[in-house]
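Section 4.2 – Deliverable D4.2 (structural model, holo form)

The reporting period included a commitment to supply a predicted holo structure for the target in complex with FE2/S2 (inorganic) cluster. Inputs used:
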Amino acid sequence: MTEPLHDVRLSVNGVVHQVAVPARRLLSDALRHDLRLTGTHVGCEHGVCGSCTVLVDGRPMRSCLMLAVSASDYEITTVEGLADEDGSLGPVQQAFKECHGLQCGFCTPGFLTTITAGLEENPSPTAEEAREMIAGNLCRCTGYQNIVASVLRAAELKAPQP
Amino acid sequence: MIGEKVQRVEDERLLRGQGRYVDDLVPGALEVAVLRSPHAHARIVELDLDPVLDVEGVVAVYTYDDLSGPMAEPLPLLIPHPALTQGRTQYALAKDEVNYVGEAVAFVVAESRYVAEDALALIRVTYEVLPPVVGVDAARRADRLVHDDVPGNVAARMEQSVGDAAAAIEAAPHRLSLDLTVERSASMPMEGRGTVARWDPDTKRLHVWSSTQTSTGLRAAVAAKLGLDLVQVDVITPDVGGGFGVKIMHPWPEELLVPMAAMALGRPVKFTEDRREHFISSAHERGQVQHVDVGFDDEGRLLGLSVQFWHDNGAYTPYGLIVPIITSTQLLGPYKPRAYSVVFESLYTNTVIVTPYRGAGRPQGVYAMERTMDAIAAYLGKDRTEVRATNFIQPDEFPYDQGLTFQDGRPLIYDSGDYPASLEKLKALVGWDEFESFRQEARASGRRVGIGLACYVEGTGVGPYEGAHIHVETSGKVKVAIGLTSQGQGHQTAFAQVVADELGVPFEDVEVTTGDTRRMPYAVGTFASRAAVMSGSAVALAARQTRAKALRIAAEALEVSEEDLEIVDGQVQVKGAPATKVALGTIAVLSNPLRYAFDEASKLATQFTVGDTSKPPIADDEEPGLEGKDFYSPERSTFASGMHAVIVETDPDTCEIKVLKYAVVHDCGNLINPLIVEGQIHGGVAQGIGGALYERMAYDEHGQLQNASFMDFLMPYSTEMPATIDIDHLETPSPLNPLGLKGAGEAGVIPSAAVFASAIEDAEGFPIHAMPISPSELYDLRLQHGHEEPS
Ligand code: FES
Ligand code: FES
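Output (structure tokens):
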């Protein structure tokens, strides 16, 4: 039996792609393997770790829990789309670099997307709110201390300069 | 730059989503799924592959019968030991019998992982189910056997002693006995295992990329198992999404089967482990049952210590006895036991194999010792810090010989340390002396709090060796290769710092490559907190060589003596007259006499331009190129140490255990990059909190792992961590290596079970003898100890 393929339009980081995928293809696999945007990582494939988090119309979604065929109507942002327009690191990325917010870097894309969305909602979080903002993502390396610091630093970097 | 908080050079790439992990490589490779045993113990009666063979997209299916030559032999027993009389290892694909849920039975290669998984569902296996052995108690009962030919399920029994502990305990004024348990946990890196291989038929070379802690180890294993010469195999470790021990064991079945299939099929093949597979087929650790007898005097001074423990090694013993040997030796921590005897049995169970997980047997040893210290303090009514201080090895007693043999087969001799100073720092950091008044205040408002501490000594930087190769480009850029791999420890940054200082070049000009056997074929691996010590030392030595060579060449070019030269910012210059200088890149040009001018720079080195025509262009004892290569091989390990303290609050009703304060005093000798070391401590503490309060492998009596997902195996999220981890460093340099380093990678996790048991015991007022501890277990303990059930 040949698996039927579906034509899907995927708009990722402002670029529109056309792919033909089986109905069961996960969005995470489509991004990673069909579009070769391998920055989105897969740590569990059951929606718990958050490594695969991408922004769907600006809202954080676990791309391992979404089928590629259901993603065509949305604007998707992956870690590859988080840099500033001039190519320099975006504020959340920059903050992670300054605060040593990553070690192996595997969980990091999921944190970066989650925090990007989180700071849209709450641009100046307290330390406690920063901790809550990332409470759905697993990291096995950092113990989260420096990730919380990165959230606070990113908020600072994003704040309009007086 | 050594000692500075330098931002990591790795980050830019990783933050842009441009890291390259195994699953990101070789697009279009065939993909693998592995059929794994659903039974903990069974005989394979029949395997029917027929339904799979016609499935569109399935390219090949392998079972044991398809293996030949060395591949059909059991996997290697990596670390043999004379006491391991009944070592057993599995086959790459199960032959006749399976011994744990998850053991590999068949290997399907298909056009995609989706299709490969479809195919797994069609393979029909008839099993004759055998009764499984699950847990240490069942293994000791031995009314069932894991391996028919291993009596009592005992893989090994090993004993070590110094003095006559039994007699000393017998004669001691006071005696205590403790029975303790620690449950299983696992490394659980966010990236699972993965391997991709490509066979190049034109050059007859195999390229393997694996998410491993040892490229060179895997290379040797692949060559041996596939019948290739070592020089035909390249193993490259790309970015690795965490290791923590589980990626050291080599070769994993898939690490051999993937290259085997790639060669047979003539197409690249990739295996990417999923999370359930990681739970049921990658290694676990920690499970032990312990019995301690101790004799001591009125001050709490140890007079004799006798420890027996039973170590659950799972179904096979590929990594030998490393974990229980570490437990049995590192148990002693910073103390002098006076007389010590330890005996352990390493036992087979029908569960996933046990190999080192960050800490590697030390957390269990520290737990046994520190529970004992607390028990002595409670018995004598003394402060817990006092009893410890009474037993410390003193700063003037180094080197201190514990009289035992360590995991590397070498004597257990501590090189340096200052334990009394550490304890003072810890007491100040956590507020030990002020805690009683805090407890009173808390009690007044109906809150229950407790404080605990735990001390450890960690042998780090085990041999046999590591090496480094440094090459200076004619541009002046410095390319460094080390053989061991990186799993997020920032090796590219830390070792560039060492080179910048030792060679005298700008940090930005240094690029470090790790874990690529093409660049550095001789190496051991990243484990046992050895990277900084071993590779750091090797990098320093190689940089010194490179520097010496640069000075020799520059001295000739500038017609001055070597002693008058220094290298600053990539320029070799005359001391005191820095205008007289030559760039390191130019030295690189001069070091390589050429026939041809490839570019402007190399014109300088061509035959009509350079050199004393009365001498050979390359002196007898020189080589072309501005390079340095050296190896560091220590006589024995260097011993880091530390002490943790924690203040917990236990909820009087829900039994929830909350961390109010966590304090770490850490001595890993000189620090290369404090930012990285502190990050390692944070991560270790988080794994320790997980291991003490949340994580366990919940095997049922059938040997089924009931919590094989992130839904059910509870790892700490940010909300389980305390707001801060307070860290203070003590730097007692190691006299054993050129930079005075000691390892730091595992330290954060080592004392956690002990420190939490100590604090919870202090909060609750009854002894804690089993870790981890969940709220419901604490609730049961409260009932047992006669607390009122909340109304
Ligand atoms: S991979 Fe999607 S949540 Fe873990
Ligand atoms: S940095 Fe390794 S898992 Fe988060």
